[in-house]
Design brief:
Length: 151
């Protein structure tokens, strides 16, 4: 569940027993803000990538000692548009993967292909459909509801 209050952009996120916060940086130079929604998305993709690679390497008994995933989100002009044509920018995620362990070049290249098969990567590249509906909720204090969900 995700909820926000009546002012500010900070959102409270409850996933099972875990409580997170997310916010957009309104003032430049703020160092201790919680992650933005895009940063959470990138973290989820990085975690999914690392788990997928670990499971594959373990299943094949490859000497993968560790994985690091770096991700960056940006907006870029749409490719293939004619000069002067108005197009919407596209989202782009750049992902770099570093492998630790005595892997062959073939194993490294295979793991790069496997990374593209992680479930979140497939979801993000599939043309996601999001269906939104209104649900009724009591008018109680959302902070208390979140705290109960986090217990």
């Amino acid at each position: 569940m995700v909820s926000g209050g009546n002012s500010g952009l900070t959102q409270k996120i409850v996933v099972g027993p875990y409580l997170f916060r997310s916010d957009e940086l309104v003032d430049a130079g703020v160092d201790d803000s919680p992650p933005s929604p895009y940063e959470l998305l990138l973290a989820a993709l990085g975690a999914c990538t690392g788990m997928t690679l670990r499971a594959y390497a373990d299943r094949h008994q490859w000497p993968l000692e560790g994985v690091q995933v770096w991700l960056e989100h940006s907006r870029v002009d749409a490719e293939g548009s004619d000069a002067g044509e108005s197009t919407k920018p596209r989202d782009r995620i750049e992902r770099g993967i570093s492998f630790v362990g005595e892997l062959s070049e073939v194993q490294r290249q295979t793991l790069v292909k496997v990374a593209n098969g992680c479930s979140l990567h497939r979801t993000l590249t599939s043309g996601v459909q999001i269906d939104t509906s209104v649900i009724q909720q009591d008018t109680g204090d959302t902070d208390q509801a979140i705290a109960k969900g986090a217990d």
